[in-house]
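target protein:
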Amino acid sequence: MIADPSDHNAATTLRSEQSLGPLVLGALALVAIATVAASPATAGNLAVSGPQPRQEETIGLQMSKAQFRRLVQSDPALLGRSDATPVDVLVKLDYDPVATYEGDVPGLAATSPSTSGKKLTENKAAVDAYTTYVAARESGVVAQIREKIPAATVRQSLRLAYGGVSMTLPANKVGDLLSIEGVVAVQQDSREKPLPAVPK
C-alpha cells in the first residue's frame, strides 16, 4: 500500500499493516512448531535427510531465548488433573541443552556445534564447564521439587538434547510442579514402540 504521508488515515492504516508483520511471522512459527510437536517421531520413522538449513537461513524471524522458552508448552492433557495416578513426564527446565547452548552465560563458552564450529566431542572443555553449570542449576530445581512434591521421582537427567529431567509424579501435582521456579514446562513422556522396518 502506498500512502500519502499527509493523509492521517492512510498513515495509520500503513502503521497498522506494518505492525502485523511480526505477528504474522510469530503465528506461522507457532503453527509450524505445533505441527511438528503433533507428529509422533520414533527411531523407526526417522531418516537422515542431509544437512539441515541453519535457523538464520530459513525464516527471517529472530527470537530471544526467553521468547523461545515461552513457546515450550505444557501438555494440556496434564493440566488440571485431580487424580493421583502416577504419570511419566518430561520437565523442561530453564536452561539450554548442551547441544544447543550458544554461549550466552558469562564465562561459559558455546557448546552448540553450529555456534562453536566444533563437534561436542571436540569441544570437551566447554562441554564439561557448561554441563557442570547446568547440573548445579538442575540440582537446585530438583531439590525444590523434592521438597514441594515428595512423591515425585526423578528418573533421568536430559541435559544434552532437552534441557530438563524425566520424572514420575502424581497427576494432581503437575500444577505444583509448574509453580516451582526454574520449571518451564511439563510434557507427557510417552514411550512409543518403533515402527517395524519397511521391507526393501
Remarks:
- The beta strands are 86-93, 153-158, 164-170, 183-188.
